[in-house]
Amino acid sequence: MATNIRGANLAENRRARFDYEIAATYTAGIELRGYEVKSVRNGQFQIAGARVLIRGNSPRKKEKSGASGKAANSKASGGASGGRTGEAWLVNSHIPPYQPKNTPPGYEEDRARRLLLTGSEINELTGALQEKGRMLIPLRVFMKNGFVKLELGLARPRKNSDKREVIKKRSHQREMRDEG
């Protein structure tokens, strides 16, 4: 059973920092059910191989000068930004039931879970993900003020030669540390 120390990692994607170059990190809340929170606090959250997808937010296109109907539609859709923002979803994560015999019928361990980000963060991430090869990777899960939070990394996959360089640097640092 994992200890519930404030700020302690409940789950960590150790392979992510090796396989990907992390350009920026973001913190998001996770929408969980009560029995899922118990399981996460128990340290049973697996995020290795998980991804974050943003659905329902298409990149903004330039408006034509004669489109007066678009201005009315953007006001009706509820924002001065000209449209609704999408939603961020965590997919391929795994939360086993806390008490298997007491879990509601139809519980899906691998269901997509909504991430709680602001509209401006989602718009910023959508723009950043348009660049070729960029993706959002979950790095770690932790508790903050009693809430389960997820640290996301805006990442680009590393090439095999870059991975070899990282291994060489780590081994060199390890040798230096052992000598001194």
Provide a quick synopsis of the model.
By secondary structure, the chain is an alpha+beta fold. The protein has helices at about 15-20, 35-40, 70-75, 120-130, 160-180; strands at about 10, 20-30, 50-55, 85-90, 115, 135-145, 145-155. Residues about 60-80 have low confidence and may be disordered.
Task: Describe the model.
This protein has 180 residues and is an alpha+beta fold. It has one domain (9-58, 81-179): Small protein B (Small Protein B, Chain: A, Beta Barrel), CATH 2.40.280. Helices cover 29% and strands 28% of the residues. The protein is built from 5 helices and 7 strands; from the N terminus they run E-H-E-H-E-H-E-E-H-E-E-H. A 7-stranded antiparallel β-sheet has the order 1-6-7-2-5-4-3. A hairpin with a 2-residue loop joins strand 6 and strand 7 (147-157).
Topology:
Elements: E1 9-12, H1 16-19, E2 20-30, H2 34-41, E3 51-55, H3 68-76, E4 87-91, E5 113-116, H4 119-129, E6 135-144, E7 147-157, H5 160-179
Antiparallel strand pairs: 1-6, 2-5, 2-7, 3-4, 4-5, 6-7
* Count of separate DSSP helical elements: 5
Low-confidence stretches: 61-82
Instruction: Report, as a whole number of angstroms, the end-to-end distance.
Output: 37 Å
Overall structural domain count: 1
Helix content: 25-40%
- Order of strands, widest sheet: 1-6-7-2-5-4-3
Relevant terms:
180 residues; globular; single chain; 28% strand; alpha+beta; seven-stranded antiparallel β-sheet
